[in-house]
Write a structure and sequence with these properties.
The complex is a heterodimer of chains A (about 450) and B (about 130). Chain A is mostly helical and about 450 residues long. Chain A is built from 19 helices and 6 strands. The longest helix of chain A is centred in the last third of the chain and has 32 residues. A 5-stranded mixed barrel of chain B has the order 1-2-3-7-6. Chain B is mostly beta strands and about 130 residues long. Classes of the chains: A mainly alpha (about 450), B mainly beta (about 130).
Chain lengths: ~450, ~130
């Protein structure tokens, strides 16, 4: 392929531009033991951050950042993943640490709905003052944290002490989630991360996933995803691109980018929220600030389809359901829904028919899979570049997980069966590469070709 | 829709959706961070020093540090916390009466402003030391 052809597709162009940083991230994830070239300061920092993220408990209750943001589950947790964990996993610390048994987590809601207890409005009334929130993934943070109003971290965009930055977010997470007792005494119940540790954690998190947003429209293949992209970009129909420019996490209302913004989209007004149906106490979540203004942070959409459930309270399980939410009364009566309708010449909010909902979801599934394929290719190429068999195996296994995500996301929407077949073949070959002593490179190269064939069926 | 209406709508929407003044971070965890260790704030947007004088009538406190003197006004919005990390106890909510001459404090003035010498305080941490 000529370079001009390669650069003709925005997603391919993005992929090419992402190679160095993603490779750094990959190296970081692996523990950075590659033989050559010698790691520079940034890759060393990322490797240190990776080690801290997955292994450092900060002298607390045993949790690490990776407890709630595991790499093997797209850096988030959901009930299906939680169900696979042993009962002594530190995620369940409220079930086996007597000091955290009451008012630290709600084990039933955690296991059934993947919800974590957060004391956003302070720790003075633990019994009554809390919210239940899902775990946002930490992919694509480089494209989603910045905002003119200050950094946006966590579901309400201000989940950090100090300056609210991603670096400070780690401090807040340690105090909130790592403590041995509810006294939360620094030096006793946990230790605070040092400045150097915060720097490394920040570098690692910023290295994860995409390093820049897509440039829509993509030249998609497939009738339904193509139509979904049209609706997504149509400011008179889907209106999605106003708040998720290029399927990212930044908003643009014609007067310039608002960066990563907060919206009150009315999710808290959904009538049948799963956690509340249980009859358990689930206080209303008031979002940003104390007391809150009802707004929540906009997540990026590129990595959405394989990181559900959706919204800050995990209220919706499928990406189709998440798109359909914007058709409902909860959204269209919300401040964000009314404001969006205000920008429409006819004063109309979002009114999509069922096939249009499915089309937008299909588009989101495809962009998610394109990102998965990009990562699979990077990981497979990284496996070819290292000489240590253990490193090679780790890269290949991560590539297999990304491939599994790709097939699951496409099959879940009944999309691109031929691409699914290529992806399944890529998985088979990557598995053979893991097992093979002499033909690992050959199988890996074949797996790469299968991925590229699958991608070619999704986008021109 | 006219351009003017659109612009008005956009501006209104921006304000509605958080395009106003910069959002301050939640203070839920700030209280647990010892004096001088708040990431991104300590030594940058805060002042650390000893309480020199207190004016109960004006609800102001004068602080003297290595590089100067500052004044902070305690308002209804100001959070005062007792940093008891040196005695290995949990930090507590405090009050204006906890500000005593000689106490080491860290003051964050409202807004992210560097180098201001006076103004309303967003929070004040008062360091509690072990008994001699």
């Amino acid at each position: 392929m000529r370079s001009g052809e390669l650069l003709s597709s925005p997603i391919k162009r993005a992929a090419v531009m992402c190679v160095p940083s993603v490779f750094l991230a990959v190296v970081g994830l692996s523990g950075c033991k590659a033989a050559s070239p010698p790691p520079d300061r940034q890759s060393q920092l990322i490797a240190k951050g990776s080690d801290l993220f997955f292994n450092e408990t900060f002298a607390g209750n045993g949790r690490t950042c990776g407890t709630c943001h595991p790499a093997e589950n797209n850096f988030t947790i959901d009930p299906a993943f939680i169900a696979t964990l042993p009962k002594n996993n530190p995620l369940f610390v409220a079930e086996f640490n007597p000091d955290l048994k009451v008012n630290f987590e709600n084990p039933a809601l955690m296991r059934e709905f993947g919800l974590i207890l957060e004391n956003l409005d302070g720790f003075d009334d633990l019994k009554n003052t809390f919210v239940m929130r899902g775990v946002p993934h930490v992919l694509g943070l480089r494209t989603s944290v910045d905002s003119p109003g200050g950094p946006r971290t966590g579901w309400s965009g201000d989940g950090a002490p100090g300056d609210g930055s991603l670096r400070s977010f780690a401090v807040g997470a340690v105090i909130q989630h790592f403590t041995k007792t509810l006294n939360r005494v620094p030096g006793v119940d946990f230790r605070l991360p040092t400045g150097e540790e915060l720097e490394a954690l920040e570098a690692f998190q910023l290295s994860l996933g995409r390093q820049q947003d897509l440039a829509l429209p993509l030249r998609l293949r497939g009738t339904v995803p193509k139509r979904g992209q049209e609706i997504f970009l149509d400011n008179a129909l889907g209106k999605c691109n106003r708040c998720h420019v290029n399927a990212g996490a930044t908003a643009n209302f014609g007067g310039g980018s608002l960066g990563n913004a907060n919206f009150n989209t009315g999710v808290e007004d959904l009538p049948d929220q799963p956690a509340r149906l249980t009859g358990k106490v689930v206080p209303r979540d008031d979002g940003l600030r104390t007391p809150g203004d009802g707004t929540f942070n906009t997540p990026p959409l590129v990595e959405a389809a394989d990181t559900g459930p959706f919204f800050h309270n995990n209220a919706v399980e499928t990406v189709e359901g998440a798109v359909a939410f914007y058709n409902g009364a909860a959204f269209n009566n919300s401040p964000a829904g009314r404001a969006l309708a205000g920008t429409d010449p006819k004063g109309v909010g979002i009114r999509l028919d069922a096939t249009q909902v499915v089309a937008v979801a299909a588009f989101l599934r495809v962009v998610n899979v394109l990102e998965n394929i990009r990562q699979s290719i990077m990981l497979l190429e990284a496996s070819l570049a290292v000489s240590f068999s253990e490193e090679k195996r780790r890269f290949l296994e991560r590539a297999i997980r990304e491939t599994d995500d790709s097939t699951r996301v496409l099959k879940g929407g009944g999309l691109h069966p031929e691409a699914v077949a290529h992806l399944q073949e890529a998985r088979r070959l990557a598995e053979k590469a893991v097992r093979s002593v002499f033909f690992s490179r050959k199988h890996t190269e074949e797996a790469l070709r299968s991925h590229k064939k699958a991608r070619a069926l999704l986008v021109e | 829709m006219t351009v003017r209406k659109f612009v008005v709508g956009v501006v209104g929407m921006s304000a509605l959706l958080g395009g106003g003044p910069p959002a301050s971070a939640h203070e839920m965890t700030e209280r647990y961070i010892p004096v001088g260790q708040s990431p991104g704030l300590s030594g940058k947007y805060t002042v650390i020093g000893k309480v020199q004088t207190i004016n109960v009538r004006d609800q102001t406190v004068a602080i003297v540090g290595a590089t100067g003197t500052w004044s902070a006004k305690v308002t209804a919005r100001t959070k005062i916390w007792l940093d008891r990390s040196k005695v290995r106890l949990t930090n507590l909510k405090g009050a204006f009466s906890d500000l005593r001459p000689g106490a080491t404090v860290e003051v964050k003035h409202e807004g992210h402003q560097r180098g201001i010498s006076s103004g309303p305080a967003e929070w004040i941490k008062v360091q509690v030391l072990p008994s001699p």
